[in-house]
Amino acid sequence: MRILALETSCDETALAVVEEGRRVLFSRVASQTEVHRLFSGVFPEKASRLHLETVWLLWRETREALGGGIPDAVAVTAGPGLPGSLLVGLMAAKTLAFLGEKPLIPVNHLVAHLYAVYLAGVDLLFPALGLVVSGGHTDLFLLSSHREIRRLGGTRDDAAGEAFDKVGRLLGLPYPGGPEIDRLSREGDPRAIPFPRAYLEGTRDFSFSGLKTAVAVYLEKSGDHFRPADVAASFQEAVVDVLVEKTVRTAEELGVGEIVMAGGVAANRRLRERMGEECAARGFRLHVPPPSLCTDNAAMVGARGYFAFREGVQAGLDLEAFPRGTPLF
Length: 329
Ligand code: KG4
Ligand code: ZN
Hints:
alpha/beta; Nucleotidyltransferase, domain 5; five-stranded mixed β-sheet; 11 helices; 19% strand; binds 5'-O-[(R)-(carboxyoxy)(hydroxy)phosphoryl]adenosine; binds zinc ion
C-alpha cells in the first residue's frame, strides 16, 4: 500500500509517498526557515501563505517523480500545530483524497515523529516509551500498541526546542537556535556554569522556562565577560540531563524495555550521545531516527498513517484541524 502524506503543521511544507509504512519512495521538505529568520521565529500568517504557494508545487513534483495518479490513500497532519498552517495541508489532502476517491487518514504530528523510526528499519516491540522533543513539544508517551497510545506528561511551559531557540536568540545566534547551540557547544565546557535543572519530582512533566531565565540573568550579570561556547554547552547539558534522567526513570518505573526518541531536538548530538549511553548502561533498547528524519517531514506522517489505517483510523472530508488537544491518531 502506497500512502501520499502531507505535513504543514509549522514552517515546513512537506510531501512524501511511503510504501507499507516503511519504504520512502519520494520525500520533499520545503523549509521556510530563511523567511522566518527575518522575524527571529515563526510568523504564523506568513507560514500559512507560504504553505499555500508551495504545497501544489510539491504535489506536481511528486506526480512527475512517481508517475500515475494519487496513491492508495492520503495521510495528513491534523494537529497539533499552527491553525492556519494545518488548514492548508488539510484542504490539499482532502482535495486529493476526494479527486482520487481514496481514503483520508488523519495523523497526530507528535505520534508521527515517533513513527519515523519505522523508516529507519526499526519495528517497535510494544510497550514502548516515546519521548518527543521538538520546537513546540516535550512530551512522554506510552505506546502499548499501534492503537493504544497514552500521553504520560509534558512540558508545563517552554518546550525543549523553544528553550534552545530562545537561548540562541539571547546569544545572538540565528534562528533556529537549536542546531547553532549544538554546533557552538562543541567548543565549550558543559560544566562551566551550573544552570538549574527542574526535575519536577513525582511527575512526568518538564519545565524549561526557569532554565531559560537563568541563562538570561547570567548573561545580564556577565556583561561582555562570558564565553558563548561555555554558555551554550552548559545550557545544553542542563536540558540533556533532565530529558535523559526523566525518560529513563519513567521507563524503569513502568517496566518498559524499549525507548523511542524523536522530534527536532532529537537531532542534537549531545542528547543522542547521552541518551544512548544511559540506555545502554541501564539495559534499554533505544531507537532514534537519523537526524534528517527527526526534524519535520512528511515521510513520518506516511509511516504513522499506514499503521493507523491498518487499525481502522480514517476520516471523512469534514475532518477538522486540531491545533491543540489533538487526538492521538
Ligand atoms: O520537530 P521540529 O522540526 O518542529 C516542530 O515540530 O517543532 O523541531 C524544531 C526544533 C527547533 O526548536 C530547533 O531549534 C530544534 O528542533 N532543533 C535542535 C537541533 N536541530 C533542531 N535542537 C537542538 N539541537 C539540534 N541539533
Ligand atoms: Zn515536529
